[in-house]
């Protein structure tokens, strides 16, 4: 396919093949997509359907090339179609796609995770971040014998019933942070607090001493746009949980292996009790995991009494892709380069928005970032929700029309990969300058 960047005619932006594909998909799939985050619900219009991906690029079925800043919503830190990962999958394919019996590769990747992630001594593989969060909450409750959990508003831990309350990501994007079908009973023990407010957590501990199983959070929030922890906040949570005997639970599905090989916990020097991993750990195939100390993980069945299982858990292809990705990250350590490239992008977007006179703030940690159309720092869910989402929608389409694929919601983080180049970043900044000027006027 001879791909081109899309024509710069917005709103006359037209994708006839994608349009036909979307109509067809809508006839057999709810909303035409298998996960709502992809549906362009927040930005209006219809999503391009993808034909293929390579390196830092996506190619749609209408023949357009896009610089990709979603990276499959996080997993593709090495870029698409990385040779080492492809080779590993091909080798695994030759020997069988699923056994329902243990394989040595599962121990290899478990050892790689334990070597990389400071707080993990044992790890259990599952198939999605949702499953990891659901299982880890069960473990926290099972081990402590306590029921209550503290959750941050705007944080997202997959679509687990007890955690689908004031949830970020597409739940916020689509205006359903509390979903119908989640019964009052299943969230009765979920206590909500704002992110970055240590006192709110202290108040809960004071009100329910000895009753909280775990404090759950994304240590760097990525599902309400990118929101870093305030200095001292993670340390305060660590101290409070230790004092009360509750567990500190880091959802590192996004940040694991991205903000450092050892994730946010390495970067910020805080060891949680329980960690959820996903996305990068599967190298682009469906895998996720949860891990903790040996003492905690030995409560998990069949070593212990807390039940959790999965037919495709530790799937050979996913383990091969994940292991190759983790090895590549260890051997080549792209983190300094990702930092520099992402800083260049953040600074350029900030400059472009300033020049266009648009109220904004760019927030970044490592290779995750968000341009918020919000005047002043975004420190929590309430701040994030005050962003100008209409302007975001216009900006998003102007960028897409210039060949830049950003996350299709103000409440998601963009991801830079090791396949991006300075030229890609500079092209993105130039596109943003034009797009901001085009979208900043009256709608
Ligand atoms: N967890 C992803 C980032 N918010 C979204 C992926 C999805 O829901 O499809």
**What is the CATH topology of the largest domain?**
Aspartate Aminotransferase, domain 2
Low-confidence stretches: none
From the N-terminal CA to the C-terminal CA, the straight-line distance is 35 Å
> What share of residues is helical?
25-40%
Q: In order across it, which strands form the biggest sheet?
A: 4-10-9-8-7-5-6
Multimerization status: single chain
What CATH architecture label of the largest domain applies? 3-Layer(aba) Sandwich
Order of helices and strands: HEEEHHEHEHEHEHEHEEHHHEEHHEEH
Highest-level CATH class of the largest domain: Alpha Beta
The total of helices stands at 14
Number of domains: 2
Strand content: 5-15%
What's the CATH H-level superfamily name of the largest domain? Type I PLP-dependent aspartate aminotransferase-like (Major domain)
**Could you tell me the mean pLDDT?**
94
Shape field: globular
Write down the Rg. Answer: 21 Å
List how many beta strands DSSP finds: 14
By secondary-structure content and strand pairing, the structural class works out as alpha/beta
Largest sheet, if any? 7 strands, mixed
Could you please describe the fold and organization of this structure?
By secondary structure, the protein is of the alpha/beta class. It folds into 2 domains: 16-57 and 68-80 and 335-425, Aspartate Aminotransferase, domain 1 (Alpha-Beta Complex); 83-331, Type I PLP-dependent aspartate aminotransferase-like (Major domain) (Aspartate Aminotransferase, domain 2), CATH 3.40.640. It has 14 helices and 14 strands. It has helices at 16-28, 83-95, 104-116, 129-144, 170-173, 198-207, 233-244, 263-268, 294-297, 316-332, 335-355, 381-385, 389-400, 422-439, and strands spanning 50-54, 57-60, 65-68, 122-126, 148-152, 190-193, 212-217, 247-252, 274-277, 288-292, 361-365, 368-372, 404-405, 414-415. The strands form 3 sheets. Strands 4-10-9-8-7-5-6 form a 7-stranded mixed beta sheet, with helices on both faces. Strand 7 (212-217), helix 7 and strand 8 (247-252) form a beta-alpha-beta unit. Helix 13 (389-400) crosses helix 14. The longest helix has 21 residues, at 335-355. The chain is globular. The protein binds (4S)-4,5-diaminopentanoic acid (HOZ). (4S)-4,5-diaminopentanoic acid is lined by residues 35, 37, 73, 156, 169-170, 223, 412.
